[in-house]
Structure formats: C-alpha cells, structure tokens
Amino acid sequence: MFTPQGPTLRELVVQALSSVERGYDLLAPKFDHTPYRTPAAVLDSVTGTLRRLGPFDSGLDVCCGTGAGLGVLRQVCRERVTGVDFSAGMLTVGRARTPVVPDAPRTHWVRADARALPFGPVFDLAVSFGAFGHFVPRERPGLFAQVHSVLRPGGRFAFPIVAPARPGSRLYWSLLAFDTAMRVRNALWRPRFVMYYRTFRLADVREELVRAGFEVELQALEELGRRADGSPRCRLVVATRPS
After folding, report:
1. Which residues form a coiled coil (predicted)?
2. CA-wise closest residue to 197 among 36, 62, 25
3. pTM, two decimal places
C-alpha cells in the first residue's frame, strides 16, 4: 500500500493516536506517498467533467490537504483558487509543492475549519476530495450550509462519490473492520480521530444537500468504468446554488 517514501508503521500508529489535526500535521510531509491521496485517475476524470460544466472564475477546495484538488481547480478556473484546511502541516507542504505556472490562476492557502468558512459568497465552484469521512453525519448539514454560503448564485459544489462496496466482498469487510476499529479506538482513547468510510451514503448526502438549498444532479465518471450490473463505479455529485 505504501511506497518506500511513505510513513513507517510507527509513524502511522502515532498519527492514529493523535487528534485529526495533529495527525495530519505529522503525516503531511509523506502524505502524497500514501494511498490516502486521491488517485490521479479520479482527479483527471473530475477535471474533464468540470471543464464541460464551466467556465469558472474562482474556486475553493474544501479540506484541501496538500492540494490535489487545487490542481483540478487550476485547470478549470480562470482567476483565482483557494484551498482551506485546518492542518497547518498540510497547508505548508501544499504551498511548498505548488508549481509556478505562467498565466495560472492565483493560488491562496487558508487555515480554517470547514465548519466555519471565513468567506463570503465569492466562489463559482467548490470541490472536495476524500475528506467527508472526517465529519460525523450530524456535522454534514452544517458543513453543506457553509459551502452553500460561500458560493455565488449559480455556483456549484462538486465532489466524487464511489459506489458502495458489495455486501460480502473483501472490500466490504475491510471497510467494516476499519470503521469498527475506529469506533473502538474513539471509545477508549482521547483525543478522538474521526475517519469513517461507511457513513457517507449517497441517498443521505443528496437529501442533506437539498435541505441546505442545493439542486443536485449526478454525473457518471465514465473514465473510471462501470460495475458488472452496469452502474458507474464512481459518480460526480454536482450541487448547484440556484440563481
């Protein structure tokens, strides 16, 4: 799962026994060498779909980490892009690794909690990749309301969501075991480390987005293939703040 440049087992254990913020501060220098970084195939597929939905002037990457999503935004936004994350370590690494490209949109890095975004309605597009497991279900309505509040009328909030693992499959049992272990860890140890894979269900998420004021559509990310029953392996959720 990990390259030689990735974290050691000891480093992962120390991270897992820390808070979410401290854990990612520790992991930041090696994060891009772990399987936790969003795969390039997903980023490329989302980029292609957003290009067809654009153009956009300004974009926000919610829980940006080291900036994989900002790479998407720089390809589909014309003026400026902003990454927001509460881990100072992730922001520092992302800022240092941002390539200098002539005529690229201005890039800003902001340390803040996504549950209290420090912006007005100034963005045309918001994205997020792989961060929703760090929010327990009761926090999602507030998170979605925050994203809604920073989008201009007609602005879009887009994020990929992978089809759920089939019950009984190896992936199903692996995710169940991970979430169970995390719940046990959080019951016995403080500070808590919130990361769950099985709490982000499409039907619930869609309903919560609508309640936050979004109009929601789904687009299949065809480049990522389809399952045996013909359903997409991955969809892009596109939530629009009505004009």
Report:
1. none
2. 36
3. 0.93
Better-scored residue on pLDDT, 242 or 7: 242
Q: Which ranges of 65-154 does DSSP label H, i.e. alpha helix?
A: 68-76, 88-97, 140-150
Q: In degrees, to the nearest 5, what angle opens at C-alpha 240 toward C-alphas 239 and 241?
A: 125
Question: Position 143: which residue type?
Answer: L
- 85, two tokens: 């994350």
- Distance, in Å, from the CA atom of 142 to the CA atom of 55, rounded to the nearest integer, reads 28
Rounded CA separation 201/165 (Å) = 11
- The tokens describing 54, both together, are 């654009």
The domains of the chain, with CATH numbers, are: 1-36 (no CATH), 38-164+201-240 (3.40.50.150)
Could you tell me which of 45, 36, 39 has the C-alpha nearest to residue 16? 36
Across the beta sheet with 151-162, the strand order is 106-111, 77-85, 56-62, 123-127, 151-162, 234-240, 215-220
DSSP sequence for 8-20: -HHHHHHHHTS-H
Strand partners, 162: 234
Per-residue pLDDT tens digits for 103-140: 889 999 999 999 999 999 999 999 999 999 999 999 99
